[in-house]
Write a structure and sequence with these properties.
alpha/beta, TIM Barrel, about 35% helix, about 15% strand, globular
């Protein structure tokens, strides 16, 4: 079970089933320390929010029922320059910015080399804290090792996404090999990854059981998971405990 889970979608999206308060109560039941809500950026066709939604998150307390609530976003890469669908207010006021490739968000496939350059540009921009599901290259091809190197060099976290390591997903293309490559690069740089559930309902919150079954295979050890080190994670995100 994760102590911290920063990849959560709520009813604000068109494709999730729980409210923020339901997530808070579930997190309290599970004894979690912090959770983070992170709807898709507005460029994604499968979301129901616009930039104004993210502007209003500041009106929700950071502590509810003893659980720390962080406010974030799962942005979309929207062009070949690595730009994301987050305005200046979001960049300056949200607790963290995640980003990744998503279909239906306006990005035109640039091929392996172009997509790799796009992602590295986003990593180097200083706007992104976490790259979501970076081992899943089914929709857009990119060089996973190069992206992992760039992330480690720029203190950007790489996400081990619980949903994408489920059996029916990890078997797609090179997902498992990509995840093993990411682990090797992160270990070489003496960095950590972040594990998130990508929850779309409270019943998925904090669940890392799929990862527990394959940690040894991918070479991931508990000391490489930043969720286990809240102070280090909060310091990296420049958030006060």
């Amino acid at each position: 079970m994760l102590k911290i889970d920063l990849h959560i979608h709520t009813l604000a999206s068109l494709h999730a089933q729980s409210t923020i308060f339901e997530y808070i109560n579930r997190a309290k039941e599970l004894g979690m320390e912090a959770i983070g809500v992170s709807e898709h950026g507005s460029a994604n066709a499968s979301t129901n929010v616009d930039e104004f939604y993210f502007h209003t998150l500041c009106r929700i307390p950071h502590w509810i029922n003893g659980v720390r609530l962080l406010k974030g976003v799962e942005c979309n890469l929207i062009d070949s320059k690595g730009n994301i669908d987050a305005d200046e207010f979001m960049l300056n006021n949200l607790d963290y910015i995640m980003a990744g490739f998503h279909g239906g968000a306006g990005y035109e496939d640039q091929g392996m080399e172009g997509n790799t350059k796009t992602m590295i540009s986003a990593i180097k921009s200083g706007k992104v804290n976490i790259i979501t599901h970076p081992f899943f290259t089914v929709q857009y091809k990119f060089d996973v090792r190069k992206i992992a190197e760039a992330a480690c060099e720029n203190n950007v976290l790489l996400e081990v996404n619980k949903y994408y390591i489920k059996e029916h997903m990890i078997k797609k293309e090179n997902s498992l090999t990509n995840l093993m490559d990411i682990t090797k690069v992160v270990k070489k740089h003496k960095k950590k990854v972040i594990v998130n559930s990508d929850s779309h309902s409270i019943w998925e919150l904090g669940d890392d059981s799929a990862l527990e079954l394959m940690k040894n295979k991918i070479g991931l050890t508990d000391d490489m998971i930043i969720n286990n080190y809240p102070e280090e994670l909060f310091k990296l995100l420049k958030i006060k405990m």
